[in-house]
Amino acid sequence: MSPAPILVWFRRDLRLDDNPALAAAARRGGKVVPVYIEDRAGEGAWAAGGASRWWLHHSLGALDASLRANGSGLIFRAGDSAEVLGRLVAETGAGAVYWNRRYEPASVALEEAIMARLGSEAIEAAGFAASLLFEPKAVTNKQGGPFQVFTPYWRHCLELEIPDPVAVGRPDWWPAARLPRGETLESLGLLPGRDWADGFAARWTPGEQGARDALREFVSGRIDRYSKDRDFPALRGSSRLSAALHFGEIGPRQVWAAVKERNAETGVFPSSEGERRFLAELGWREFAHHLLYHFSRTPEAPLRSEYERFPWAEDPGKRLLRAWQRGKTGYPIVDAGMRELWATGWMHNRVRMIAASFLVKHLRLPWGEGARWFWDTLVDADLANNTLGWQWTAGCGADAAPYFRIFNPVLQGEKFDPEGAYVKAWVPELGGLSPAFVHRPWEADAATLDAGGVELGRSYPRPIVDHAEARRAALAALQSIKARP
DNA sequence: TGAAATGTTGGGGCG
DNA sequence: ACGCCCCAACATTTC
Questions:
Q1: Whole-number distance in Å between A440 CA and C11 C1'
Q2: A383: domain range?
Q3: Mean per-residue pLDDT for A110-119?
Q4: What tens digit of pLDDT does each residue of A43-60 get?
């Protein structure tokens, strides 16, 4: 008699390769029932945002197709995860539920509850490590606590052993369970109602194959120029793997192994500044997830409590916030970034820092407003990375930028987009300006603006705040929360 | 994974 | 020839 069926509960591990839960289930020899549950309440206050759901929809479609090639596609369900799993166990006579762990606070709580519930029913329940290089509990400082500064954290991690993805591999075949499919992918309602996301498809290929292709393309060449090119948004300098990693279409061990593999002949690894820097970005991803695990309130509250009393600016009618969201601040590099975000569901990292800094320091609007906007508009929206990024920018997080570090959007633009190519790609109304003025159109004289086809205040806004003035106000506000008990 | 203010130095114009 | 000033260029400090 063959073993009882096993439910494989897919979540943010939408791949067949290097998927320990699936591999373990396949090894058992019983039928495998792959299921995805859309459980918005189970995500706490951070159910996936709009752009992210677009990606999720297509990634689930790709996973379903891959699974169907083995005989049985993904079972889609909506509702409370514990209840749905309980019903499926009953329907299928499953003896076990396997999944790959998540580390966000709501997910940790949900998994604990499910583990207890299944345990009480004598159903085997097992979570596997798949989405990080290191489990949060495996990385502690000498006092046994979490690191709060990246450099020592990552130095410590590099001493640890990275699990080999080949050891998990991709199961060749497993006995398929025939189940009524019930709900369809479409019925989960993941796609946005409006035509907002229609342009995303021109840029992205969600799914395991797309992720694999993107990794190969990056690692076979661009990675060697990564440390130089990564800061220039007009170039394609970064890997653009963020969404694939968020949804687990590819795992960080596979990324690590791909970089290692390209050095197989020499054995020297990492072999270039580009590789070293790229791996350190995986390190930031680990760091962010570990910090969120240990400081579970940080999506809502500053890690440094003195920032609870930060005097944010008034914004009647949300005029400033709206201008920022729509890419109409009058600062070209900020507006270009915000428009790239809206059009593609993604923004170059250098520009994320500039745009975020502008919201928090020039407009003095709460970082949570920015975090929410990014959460809803980024296809790669990730609670750990988003939280770390915004708290870093606002100066209130772990290893944060010092409060006095205020990006000058003009200088940043001129430094990292010297020709204005990035600005012109997303803010076409500035296309007629020379590099000397494309980042500071308000300084051009009337004839220059006229020749460039720019009508300040009409075709492109004047700056909504004055840089020098905003900088002074930000420093004063930050001063006001310092050195008080 | 800054920017601006302030300080220092040294070349060159000039009386 | 000398001292003085200006100021770019660079370094340091401060926010």
A1: 28
A2: 305-483
A3: 97
A4: 999 999 999 999 999 999
